[in-house]
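Posting here for the record, re: pyridoxal-5'-phosphate.
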Amino acid sequence: MQINQNYLNLKDSYLFTNIENRVKNFQQKHPNVKLIRMGIGDVTLPLADAVVHAMRKAVDEMGGASTFHGYSSERGYEFLRDSIKKYYLAKGVHLNLSEIFVSDGAKSDIGNVLDIFGRENTALIPDPVYPVYVDTNIMHGRRIEFLAGNEENEFLPLPDASMPADIIYLCSPNNPTGSVYNKEKLQVWVDYANKNDAIILFDAAYEIFVSDDNLPSSIFQIPGAENCAIEFGSFSKTAGFTGVRCGYTIVPENLKRKINGEFISLNKLWLRRQTTKFNGVSYITQRGADAALSEKGLAQIRENIGYYRQNAKIIADTLSELKIWFTGGRHSPYIWLRTNGMSSWEFFDFLLEKARLIGTPGAGFGECGEGFLRLSAFGDRENVRRGMRQFKEIINTL
Ligand SMILES: *Cc1c(COP(=O)(O)O)cnc(C)c1O
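Prediction output follows.
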């Protein structure tokens, strides 16, 4: 018996435990101080009415003999895939229903997709980064190269020809930095992947925050991407589904790789993987997700996104006023700011103790995150206002 020893190479992520310990410590000393949490990476607004309504109706259907549903079809119900197809059509992206795979969320798919890739590949991962990309590759024992995000490239690194890259991770709008690739930069990545026979795994979990039609919200808006990219979408941040669980993965029919003279379809491999190891998302959930993409649902979820976006603007405006360098906030719920000479954790403690504000230290997202801190706009408006007032006061004392 052998365990998968790759698991022993995982670094424990102390980020959120460490934050909680420091917060607990502070609260023991100051039990009456009300802290403002701006570190959360979870939505706070409830589900849209249209979604709740559709899910209630689906529950009733499940309780009736003639309307009951058992296992869903392989790639997800056609009604939902059809709505996703229309959602993409509005972005100018034409998808076939067979290219859309409904799942229980982007995180699972981002991890599971590695099943269809050889272990010998090198993964190219930007730093700072959503930790899932790193840990899932370590679990498979795959070689990882990190690509540095920094102030010079505004945390939007471009390919480096000297680095091997078979599987490339891109997340735009980015968590944690809030940065968004424009079409020209994303085209550079797509051309690079096509030239080098690499595959891009594109995490579009925050696509709905893109509020400028000139910025890409799907990699498939970039010519050539259908030959080199897989995209992950999620209802989590879009429609408040973090606790409901629904996402989708798009694997183009054109995505093929030649093995021993034969073209192998990655779409077929993913279908095989999913039908073997996954049995679909509940009917009730898929009805809810479908309602989120209806005309009424979209209007309601966009209103929620508008609320978070306004919070982000309050944060961004405060930082601009204080002349603090930052990325994000315009097309993202995250703001990534320079900690002005302090380390990420020093700045975290400084904010906690002096401004009674909780952020997320950038160093927790990778080496290149040192010297930065993430603030989240997923929260209550009044708290964000109060938080930024307190932030301004303590920065002005420096
Ligand atoms: C929140 C988030 C997701 C969404 O994951 P789900 O499993 O769909 O909830 C994916 N990628 C990033 C970068 C995220 O921050």
